[in-house]
Amino acid sequence: MLRGIKAVGFDMDGTFLETHVDYGKLELADRNVLKVHGIPFDEVYPEPDWKRKRANIRLWLEEHDRTDEFQTIYDEIDEAFTEVELEFVHEARPYPGSLECISELRSRGYVVGLLTRGSIRYAETALSHAGASGIFDVVMGRDSIYYDDAKPSPVAMIEFSKRLGVEPPELLYVGDNITDWFSARDAGSSYAGVLTGNGEATGWSDVDPGIHVIEYAGDVKDLLPRRL
Question: In sequence order, which residues have a C-beta less than 8 Å from that of residue 46 and are 6 or more positions away?
Fold first, then answer.
């Protein structure tokens, strides 16, 4: 049993919900926006970097006396990402035990939240299709914070903890991806890895033998005692 935990947070895609996102299209979305604006992607991102920080775009624009275009481009990239995420959002469904564990955690005295790298609009729409609207105390997406501070940055997890009303060490975060673990670890939060989505037992043990491994997100209740 984990002690000292006051809040439980969940990743969404591949963790709390089974979803369908065309990640190939998502990979091209910001490239296409930059192309429309005549900005060479390879100059902005000369080295492979899946995080693709917006600071690189701002720097390029500053160097070419186009700083005033930054917010427009920033917003267009976010909208392009969200359009891709929403394409198959109607297929979202909860993994076994996901919905049931929320009421159980609440009955034990925990606050619960969802922190995703998807947009807020995508997250809320996916939760609605999965019959999970309004079940979380806090829902945060990449657009709840400056993009460069979204997961896997620990800044996102620290802000998430703050909105839940707890300190980062009092938060247990559940995810399926190593980036989820990075964000939790670097913020000082506890972490549990699921076997859905991208998660697998051998993978988690290779990352850190101390990671708590559970089959489904809903099984997190087995790691926690009653608080009240």
Answer: none
Is the Cβ–Cβ distance between 114 and 139 less than 8 Å? yes
Helix (DSSP H) and strand (DSSP E) numbers for the chain: 9, 8
What 71-79 contacts at long range (C-beta under 8 Å, 24+ apart), as own/partner pairs, is: 73/33, 73/34, 73/37, 73/39, 74/147, 76/33, 76/36, 77/29, 77/30, 77/33, 78/119, 78/142, 78/143, 78/147
Q: For residues 180 and 153, is the Cβ–Cβ distance under 8 A?
A: no
Q: Decide: 207 and 175 in contact? Cβ < 8 Å.
A: no
C-alpha to C-alpha distance for 34 and 74, rounded to whole angstroms = 10
pLDDT tens for each residue of 183-205: 999 999 999 999 999 888 778 98
Query: How far is the C-alpha of 179 from the C-alpha of 138, rounded, in Å?
Result: 20
